[in-house]
## 1
Amino acid sequence: MIDLHQRYGKLVRTGPNEVSVSDLAAIKKIYGPGTKFRKSSWYGVFQGHRKFDLFAEQDERIHSSQRRLVSSIYSENSLKDLEKYVDDAVMHFMAKMSGMQGQGVDMGLWVQLFAFDVIGELTFSKRFGFMDAGKDDGSFAQIDTAMASGAWLGQIPALYWAHDYLMPLLGNHLGVNARHGNMRNYVSRELEDRKNRGSDHQDILGKLFQVQKEKPKRDERHGRALDGNKQHLCWSLPRVIPPEGIEIDGRYIPKGTIIGANPWVVHRNTEVFGQDCEKFRPERWLTDNNGNMGIEPVF
């Protein structure tokens, strides 16, 4: 996609009714607050039959209602309560790195192990133990399979729903269903374990339990929220252009067209990250001469 945008510009037609965009102003309009651009049917593949899914819910009214249930828990002040537990995980990670001095280290793997242990600590009051083991428990492969499967099925959602209809007869043959099955079951087990053992310090589940206690009429939706899990994706996150259409880079795109911005493309945009956007240069974040990064947030 990066090569295509470099060749054709800010708009690239990726299908009969789908366009990829890298125009920064358009991206803000598509994904920004109060947007009229709704999620496309691509998301249905990831939601399946689940009633509570903040990532995949396409109905804006339902999504807003679901978001209100958990928004206070993820506020800045609320997250500050958990900062020290992130610090503990960081120190553990640094100790592991120190113990491997002089060895070749797969940093891509270790950063992921670290991230999952942080998620475990913040959500369930215990790390998953991935950094201690130096490996995961098979979850990474399941997630990769689910994401790869969902990526292409989202382009043909009818195929997913046909498979869903026939699954009682044929069984499951789609990796994306791990998100609705194995991975969800894993989170549910961790949830029950956390309920049974309690915690000696605050965590995200503790905050969710408290909100659930304060708002018992929303018990059913909160139960679904507690079962939920998030995946961070690097896809175009497609939206449907509203009735008035949109003009981008001098071209009018009509209503009903699917449009999205690919993060890989945006994150190598020289307007945002400077002319050396392809270079590994962490100090770019600490200088004033860093393109447009600190002036105009894209999302």
## 2
Amino acid sequence: MKSCLRLLPMAFKNVIVVGATGHLGPHIISALLSTSAFSVSILSRQTSSKFGPQVTVHLIDDSYSYHLLLAAFKDKDAVINLLPCYFSEDIPRIKKVADAAAEAGVKRIIPGEFGCDTQDDEVVEAIPAFASKREVIEYLREKEAEGLSWTAVVTGGFFDGVIKNGLHGFSLPARTATLYTPGGYRPISYTTLSTVGLAVASILSYPDHAHFANVYIYVHSVRASQEQILFALEKATGEKWETKEADAREVRGKGLARLKNGDWGGLAEVVVGGLFSGVDGMDFARRRGGVVNGELGLVEEEDLDQLVK
């Protein structure tokens, strides 16, 4: 996956990534470093040489002390906040990051919106945990008056997880697939982790610095139904897979019941059940304006057969 990242003078040269050691962080850092145009830092609770000498590490304590955040954000142009945001308990820490960014004079924050479209009421109704992400965006709107702009990057599910981690019903080792009804037979948007990284780097290097300010933007690598992914996997493996069906709404209901009883393991069921519930907002091609892949120098849509190899 290649991108034509723009190397013009930028407003967002000094970038710090919060929560960089998760699944997405390394891909974003790799994309930033690939241009030689950014000075990249991370905020970490422990010293790390994972990203090499090109990346500066700012240490933070478990409570994310405000004075340490201010020190880390000094002279930074952009903050990429990848801290998880699924429960109400996550919100105060994320708001604290935004407060410190605004006070330190940071120009742009990219919140951990990556995933489904939390602008869409039906999506949030299907996956209630995403209401926390919406609350964060509303808070960032308030910070606009303090000079802090934001860009929410909506990506759909991470395609890598669909295949490698057994999410969304596919098991590569067992050659089995669970197809969720009614939505599993409708295309939805997915983005690979590497493409998410390229999108973020391209946003921060875009010639018109205000173009992506204070908006949601949409990118995807591919639109595919579970059935289409299954056919691609069978083609790639040269084997017929064993399949079964499950009602997405029943899976979602079980997950909600688990969460109500304090079992956070129910979150995965709620997300998968909501994702395949048939809500239109899961397919970005169906929304007005579509995706901005072209503006960011990304391929408009990748080949599904190539992605599953």
## 3
Amino acid sequence: MALGRTDTWVQECFCKWNNAPSRATYDIDEPAAEPRQLDPESDQDAILILLASQLARIVCRAIELTAFSWLQKELSSHGPNPKTTAKTADFLQQLGKTLLTLRWRVSWWEIIETGDNNSEEQKGGYIDRVKSICRILYVYYFIARRKLPTWSGSDLVSKNGIYSEYMDAEPIFETLPYDESLQGFEQWMKEGHDMIRQANVPERLAELFSVSG
């Protein structure tokens, strides 16, 4: 499934998709009828909701694969050349944001929930898959960072972190990868759990669902 775009739009779309709300609703636009929201309490709509959720997964996977392919291509096009420094800094920033959103997704699944009724084995399978993607992009991050001179003025090099805003969470400052080793990667991923708590996600979700319930 091709999305037809291979520029930074793909990465922005990927990050936004990872930052989707913890809940989803689906509308249906039927011929000769007003659009309406599908009702999960309706047996008829329940089937359509299941279909819509599966289609959303397929689209998300297509975005993921396209974004991953774009990152591989972009990584090979950057080098320690003054003419490409600004472009490399932009690429590094986009790669850093992608890593943070993926870590957030994994941490959310591990601490809060995965949002489906799959078995623990199935849940562990796709959590491991996203972790594997994170591990690869973690390596890419340091390859790209080595190509960016320290005098470039990039905030990612000087501050090594950015402020992030996620759905159902308070704004937080997140540290980007800092240790180019397997142990460093594992520690950085564990820190994602702290980000979930620092953003007061459990409290905000508890308040949200108590109001909606």
## 4
Amino acid sequence: MDASPFFMFSTSDLLSSSSQIISANSINQDITSQIQKCPSDTYIIVSQPAVSAEDYSNRDAAPHLRHKLLREDKHIRSSISATEVFGEINSNDIVQQIEQRCGAGLLKIDASTGSFQIPDDTKPRVIRLDFPPLPAGSQRASKLLEHDIFLSSMLDLLSSTKYTVLYTTTPTTIMPHSAIAEPEAYQMDMAFSSQAHMELKRDYIAHGKRVVGDNITLPDGGLFERYQYFTPGMSAAMNHISSQQVTDCSD
């Protein structure tokens, strides 16, 4: 299926209703309307290629992202979790809009390097955070968790508590086979990764989550089981879109 998830969370009141969000076009329109208000000091545009809703369905897949979407962080005032978005969310266009409308400076972070540095200033900023595609096989879940910790650590280092995160993805079906089967090898700096994990572990202790050793125990249920805005009508609409795509391909 040519669809993948979209997530958003913010310390500002944004997108009060997500009941109509079933396509990339509608998400793009809603994002544009909210960006005009320039509600945040920092905007983080995450790009995670080659994933599906199934990658996030396990309750341990992305614990920090889950924590934000469930608004267990008291600073988060709005969030959206869309399991399947049809079409492409134009990340470059979003970045340009924020730069032009909000006077934000652009900072690009390549997560494959395993490190980053955020200038300590109060200027509006848009951060483009690019993750590499997830590998196939047994390392897939562990890499997604590393990406989750990376994003968590970056949020901890922001100088302002007013931020908005737009987490965009692309489906595995549009990635070249070689990019999925044999991704470019990268290794996070071990000191960075360990410190980030301890910060994440401390956060979950503070929020009453069970921690045994280095393991974080979360509530039962996957990310979409606990938090999603889809109604039966929206599910039917997506099924209709999917069936139409299959019909078109067969003609």
